[in-house]
Input
Amino acid sequence: MNRQSVIIITALTFMVSLTILACNLTITTTPEQVDPSSLYTHAAKTMMVGFTQTAAFSTATAISFPATATVVPTTHTPTPTDTFTPTSSSTPTSTATNTPTPTSTNTPLPPTSTSTLTAKPIPCNAARFIKDVTVPDNTKFTSGASFTKTWQLMNIGACTWTTAYDLVFVGGDAMSAPSAVALPRSVTPGDVVNVSVSLVAPLKPGTYRGNWMLRDANGSRFGLGSNADKPFWVKIIVEEVRAGVVYDFAMNYCSAQWKSSAGPLPCPGRGTEPQGFVVRLSNPSLENRHEDELTLWTSPERKTEGWISGTYPPIKVQMGDRFLADIGCLADSPMCNVGFQLLYRADGGPTIGLGTWYEYYDGNITHLILDLSPLAGRSVEFTLVVFTNGEYNQDNAFWLLPHIRR
Output
């Protein structure tokens, strides 16, 4: 290499060195202006990443930043973090506030008004109707017939009904009833009692109803319903008496006290009770024919030597009065084998039999005509009786149109 070439290379090397030195001096003395939007953008991306990582639990609210801002950093080294906290001392036109609102967080609502049910206090005196023990609604009687109405009631109040409490008539048809009848015994809350009153069917044919309630020892009335102010009642139908008939036992059958070898029986029965029952039929099928007259179906208790009886209220017998009835077995009772009796008790004396008759299913029935003249002038209770002739087996006995004729 000649001398001239060496000089040229040396000169070029020197010029390049000067240029590099000048650049380094410029960078050191004049700080580069940093675009603030790039910093916010970077920070915003970091925030979005942080919230996106928890998106399964919350959603970040959009963050708004100012369009322009002058930032004079001292030494700014942006570091990506999950939480953005500006360190600038500048006062921008508006300050961006990051207030994320997670939507999955339930905001407690004001307590909902809840109505509290207040239990209604139990009244001292209140009753519930259970059933008619005797004389259900629309029972038919002949005019002037005596009968006893019995209701079964439950004490649903808080106080005990004592024997100072009464059954009282409150309206409707009195039917010759007393104004009040004392309760037969004390009745504690929840207990059931039968209350009865003796009545007489009015003379004129028609439908009659009498309303009744209970009365406490202080004279306050009470009865049924939510306010214990509703009555219970007796409702009957009085039918016209046929000419010459003084008393119709079938028409007035629930005036009688029915019982069997098992104990007292309700009237009417259902026709299925094994302890015995009495049911009135209007179109019976007998063992030898079909009838359209009132008939009593009397079935004794279903056992060997079972029986059933009905004792009627007293009747004033006159000269020439006669007892009439047809007796036998109902249709479709081929094993029927029973005995019938008619008993009487005059003026409270002993019970005496007027006659006994046996019937079995043979296609024949017995027609009874008994002269009652020997009992004239006396008050007589008559009792109808049916008993099994041995073991019970289809013992469906009937009394067709039993009555007293004058």
Notes: Residues 122-240 form a domain with the Immunoglobulin-like fold (CATH 2.60.40.10). DSSP finds two helices and 22 strands in the chain. Confidence is low (pLDDT under 50) at residues 21-105. Residues 155 and 189 are 5 Å apart (CA to CA).
